[in-house]
Amino acid sequence: MLRVGDRAPEFSLPNESGETVRLSGLLESGPVVLYFYPADFTPGCTAQACSMRDWRDELAKAGYRVVGVSAQSEESHARFDGKHNLGFTLLTDEGRAVARAYGAVSFGVLPRRVTFVIATDGVIRDRVAADLRIGRHEDLVRRLVASGRAESGKG
Fold first, then answer.
1. Which residues are catalytic?
2. Res 106: pLDDT
């Protein structure tokens, strides 16, 4: 699994609208909170997504953009976003290649719940890996919001 200080691997994945999204494109507008989750509509993943939704505006004020990644289809992501009014990008990693590159899988195939904070220079500034403890991911978000302005990674 990638660690703080590692360079985040570039990726290109479709979002919930079918548009191709690249990490480098996301980072042009500021640091990214990139979180991997097992599946749309499951109780734990819904709770995590709704937590990210609830913190979305505060994160944006601090300079961060939220992006979720799982293996479900674009259509599933669109329904998930629509049902819960998430309002942030959901990316489809159907083959889990990106999840594997980030170490967000167990035994090479089982999805993990991992959140990365990626600065604009592409370096991972923070990380939480907690499959069943969603509160640890929210604690990371609280720390980001409490710290104020996002680290750009440039300078």
1. 45
2. 85
